[in-house]
Design brief:
single chain, 115 residues, mainly alpha, c-terminal domain of poly(a) binding protein, 75% helix
């Protein structure tokens, strides 16, 4: 009896892996054994960087708040400490957005918390 290879499933599997490698350069995009390794590594980076993105944005928000706070005569750490003591619960994302888009409103927040 002849051996069955199930070409439909194996071709679909190869096609799925090659589709993930679309746009990869050279043999990383068209040689199956190389593509497997390249796609595995790409998925590892994607998983890691979905988490790193959150840290990166938080640090960006802190930099923006600190810059705006220094314009208003205080520092980030003093501002956050005063906000915690006064129970003002504005998260860093929203506070950074206010600092960038509406400096007058940010100045009022600073003066109400610090002053």
């Amino acid at each position: 009896m002849p051996k069955a290879n199930n070409a439909v499933a194996s071709k679909a599997r190869r096609k799925r892996i090659l589709k993930k490698a679309k746009g990869f350069w050279g043999s990383r995009g068209n040689v199956l054994t190389v593509v497997k390794h390249a796609v595995d590594k790409a998925e590892q980076y994607a998983y890691r960087d979905r988490r790193a993105k959150k840290r990166t944005f938080r640090s960006l928000w802190i930099m923006r708040i600190n810059a705006a706070a220094r314009i208003n005569g205080t520092t980030y750490s003093k501002l956050v400490d005063a906000m915690n003591k006064k129970n003002v619960e504005i998260d860093r994302k929203a506070l950074a957005e206010i600092a960038v888009k509406d400096p007058a409103a940010f100045a009022k927040i600073v003066s109400s918390v610090i002053g």
